[in-house]
């Protein structure tokens, strides 16, 4: 009997969504959700100038790391590392601020 691809085909599965868990409301607001815009701007201002510049160009202005490298005269890897370090520093500072500020009702 000749081999038939339809005989061995696996049934199609329904697509799963990995975002379902993230769509649920969290029991406590995150540090970012508790933060006022002025507080976020103040935290951004505390970043070292290189971190702040790269993060602004990448996350706010939408430039690619290659474009940032060309604009600033730095290596693309430097742009990526400064953006990553800026995010980690902001995350650390946001977490610290959340633990030291009173919780919202």
UniProtKB/TrEMBL annotation:
Domain RNA polymerase sigma factor 70 region 4 type: 39-90
Region of interest: Disordered: 1-28
Keyword terms of this UniProt record: Sigma factor, Transcription, Transcription regulation
InterPro entries listed in its UniProt record: RNA_pol_sigma-70-like (IPR039425), RNA_pol_sigma-70_dom (IPR014284), RNA_pol_sigma70_r4_t2 (IPR013249), RNA_pol_sigma_r3/r4-like (IPR013324), WH-like_DNA-bd_sf (IPR036388)
SUPFAM superfamilies: Sigma3 and sigma4 domains of RNA polymerase sigma factors
Top-rank taxon, per record: Bacteria
PANTHER family xref list: RNA POLYMERASE ECF-TYPE SIGMA FACTO, RNA POLYMERASE SIGMA-70 FACTOR ECF SUBFAMILY
Protein name: RNA polymerase sigma factor
